[in-house]
Amino acid sequence: MTDLFSVCTMYLHMITTIIRREATLIAIGNSRGIRIPKLLLDESGLEHDVELQVKKGEIKIVSAPKKERAVDEALFLSEKVLSTDWNKPEEDEAWAGLQ
């Protein structure tokens, strides 16, 4: 019978195993990118929004911090307010005089 320590050690080894896969940088317009295999995405738990962290010799992809809804709403409201202030005929005339 296997002792508890051996079982725990095997389990920790299984959950800390890093999946490695080589990839080639490919041209995407003026940029370059990689295709990330589904297996790696599934294991990473990454979803829609990610953040790229860069240091010499590596690029790290992590989940982007979630924006608070209040921040999004405040930005939207300020845009609404500005549009009512700026979308006036006199504003268009003033800008036309500067061109």
SSE string:
HEEHEEHH
The tally of structural domains comes to 2
Instruction: Kindly state the number of beta strands.
Output: 4
What is the overall silhouette?
elongated
* Rounded average pLDDT: 76
- Beta-strand level of the residues, as a percent range? 15-25%
From the 3D structure, determine the CATH topology of the largest domain: Pemi-like Protein 1, Chain: D
User: Nearest-angstrom radius of gyration?
Assistant: 25 Å
Poorly predicted regions are none
State the name of the first-level CATH class of the largest domain: Mainly Beta
**How far apart are the first and last residues' alpha carbons, in Å?**
86 Å
Q: How would a textbook summarize the main sheet?
A: 2 strands, antiparallel
Spatial arrangement of strands, main beta sheet: 1-2
- Which structural class do the helices and strands define? alpha+beta
Q: What share of residues is helical?
A: 40-55%
Structure notes:
The chain folds into two domains: 21-66, Pemi-like Protein 1, Chain: D, CATH 2.10.260; 69-98. It is built from four helices and four strands; from the N terminus they run H-E-E-H-E-E-H-H. It has helices at 4-15, 38-44, 69-86, 89-98; strands at residues 26-28, 31-33, 50-55, 58-63. The strands form two sheets. The protein has a two-stranded antiparallel ribbon with strand order 1-2. Strands 3-4 form a two-stranded antiparallel sheet. The protein is elongated, with a radius of gyration of 25 Å. The mean pLDDT is 76. With 99 residues, the chain is α+β, with helices and mostly antiparallel strands.
